[in-house]
# Entry
Amino acid sequence: MISIENLSYSADKEILSNIQLVVGRGEIHGIVGLSGAGKSTLLKLIGGLLDYSKGIIRFENKKIIGPSEKLIPGYEDLQIVNQDFALDLHHSVRENIRVQAQHLQLKDREELVEELLHLLELKPVENLKAIVISGGEQQRLALARSLAKEPKVLLLDEPFAHLDVHLKPKIVNYLLKLREVRGVSMILVTHNGLEAMAMCDTIHFLNKGKITRTATPEAFYFKPKTKFEGAFFGEMNYIVRNSKRVLFRPNQYALEGAVENEVEVEFVRSVFQGTYYASYFKTAKKETVVLYAAQPLKNISTFYLVNQ
# Structure
């Protein structure tokens, strides 16, 4: 559905270099990396909002072209949700959504508008102009407008940044249902690897304008290549044993095991995290280690590494 070959982009300096990416119908891919790594720029290039300097982007085997070649930049079937929002500020919330669903018959259009107003909890402000609603409501409205287009591809740039904690899982479930029912493909850009793991089939790690790794969420979590990469996907332990660097997650341990996998520690504190306790320790080399368990691990002085 989307294929990217040897893509590079420069603006005063090189921002993206030699990007290779293929997204099939109904697939959800994540682009994870620091702010400034080029994630948002990549989405704008895919959406036809910027001109690229090298390589090619194709959508359904047709070349994506940018604003220098297209009178009205962008594509109906490729909807981008970013921090610009691109709302009709002097129209109501309902009108903002309705105008994006003009491809539907009146009855279906109004049903979709109602569905999106309820999904994104915009019903209480449906008659207010977009210019007077809050930033969080504007972000939800931008998402509603994109969904109203019923695109084949959603390009999501930090779409959950301003959402209330109760609303995020509701919207994630809706997006996953769209993929299941209509085969919608998605590319999710985020600096939060946990968000990517919750939604994506495949994750691409973008660092300094280059994709340095493509793997499954499980691989990024359990087998990070570096401490820097691993930190994007949750808490990470880093210790040195026998002059060898060891990276492991707080749940990658056992309380019994082989002597060669034993690590001696001194308990420091436990922190209640709701569904588990995070217990912190110091090794003999003063390295900090955190282990997760159903109860505080106050009484242990050793643990054993697993899957190393």
